[in-house]
Design goal:
Elements lengths: L1 H14 L2 E5 L6 H17 L4 E4 L20 H4 L3 E5 L17 E6 L11 E3 L6 H11 L8 H14 L10 H13 L3 H9 L3 H13 L1 E2 L4 E6 L1 H6 L4 H5 L13 E7 L5 E7 L5 H6 L3 E2 L3 E6 L2 H21 L5
Parallel strand pairs: 1-2, 1-3, 3-4, 4-5, 7-8
Antiparallel strand pairs: 6-7, 8-9, 9-11, 10-11
Bound molecules: adenosine monophosphate.
Adenosine monophosphate binds next to β10 and β11.
């Protein structure tokens, strides 16, 4: 089944001389790595084709992987094939001009709540979209070309989206594909230095944030990164958003939430969990995502408290009905 879809995608790619690759807004390592990785593979394989990345925003912490292509005019899209990677819904696509493309392909590992694209290749059990791009390459490796640059993009997305190969959707196949990429040649020392090293000021913010985080009766940890905090520590949106991981290993806390004030008055919510599924809570508050990693938006502190209370009830129910969760 999946082979058939992959073959259809390869055939479509062969049909077009112009291909534009898209990803989701607020790109992460997977969105960046999968799009840049596929672009590099296709450029190496088909030097005669024009293969561009056209996305409106950029992840500072992924800057070491390089940037985007210069924007093209609207008429460029009309005879191009659009490939959208790592993006569950069309609203989340970072460049809404994707709809000007002649045809659209979806490649994704998020829950397929809003199907689009033809062919559409979605495998929800994959640990990352980068894993799918690695699999795409492996399936057609007699035809496609790869190098260490492409392998690095893809490996970087696999590493970041799987929590350094820790999450439960990491399978034997994930590791076999990662092994294949390592064999191509990746400077992992350099990659991890780029992923881990941070400014001294960020350590100061983290020390403060540890003092601010709270926990509900049933073990939902949460932190509100207010505008005041963001200004005090000169945080970018990315710096502020990264704070969710500060709460990821508190005993008895199986759900943790970061609330980050946006410039427009809304509050971005990042939901994370162990064992217990929380995408249902994200969906209730204008978001969604994976079973244990989801996003949402709330518009007031009251709504934030409502979400915390929903998460607390969810965790209470989980703890009452399940054993052996530590
Ligand atoms: P984040 O906390 O933004 O990293 O999001 C965690 C996961 O939830 C990612 O896989 C996102 O793709 C997904 N997600 C975040 N926000 C939304 C949203 N508004 N709608 C659907 N999925 C989302």
């Amino acid at each position: 089944m999946s082979y058939e879809i992959k073959k259809q995608i390869l055939d479509k790619i062969k049909e077009y001389s112009k291909i534009i690759i898209f990803r989701h807004k607020r790109p992460d390592g997977d969105a960046t790595g999968s799009t840049k990785g596929l672009q590099r593979i296709l450029r190496l394989t088909y030097p005669e084709k024009e293969i561009l990345l056209q996305n409106s925003d950029f992840a500072e912490y992924m800057a070491f992987l390089g940037g985007e292509d210069a924007p093209v005019t609207d008429d460029y899209y009309a005879d191009a094939l659009g490939i959208v990677i790592d993006t569950g819904t069309t609203e989340r696509i970072s460049n809404q001009k994707f709809s000007l493309c002649k045809e659209i392909i979806k490649i994704d590992h998020h829950i397929n709540i809003a199907p689009y694209g033809n062919p559409m290749w979605v495998e929800e059990e994959r640990s990352s979209s980068c894993e799918m791009i690695a699999d795409f390459y492996a399936t057609f490796k007699d035809e496609l070309k790869i190098d260490s640059e492409a392998a690095t993009y893809i490996y970087c997305g696999m590493v970041t989206d799987s929590g350094r190969f820790r999450f439960r959707d990491v399978s034997g196949e994930t590791m076999r594909l990662a092994g294949m990429l390592l064999d191509i040649g990746i400077d992992t020392d350099k990659m991890y230095a780029n992923l881990y090293m941070k400014e001294f000021d960020i350590y100061k913010f983290e020390a403060y944030a540890y003092g601010q985080m709270q926990i509900t009766e049933n073990g939902v940890a949460y932190l509100h990164v207010t505008k005041e905090m963001q200004e005090k520590f000169c945080l970018s949106q990315e710096d502020a958003s990264a704070s969710v991981s500060l709460m990821d290993s508190i005993k008895n806390s199986l759900i943790w939430l970061a609330f980050i004030d946006n410039d427009d008055g809304s509050i971005r919510v990042r939901l994370r969990s162990r064992f217990v599924t929380i995408n249902c809570i994200g969906e209730k508050y204008r978001g969604g995502g994976h079973a244990c990693a989801a996003g949402a938006t709330v518009y007031s502190v009251e709504e934030m408290n409502q979400l915390i209370s929903d998460a607390d009830a969810r965790l209470k129910e989980y703890k009452e009905n399940n054993e052996g969760w530590l």
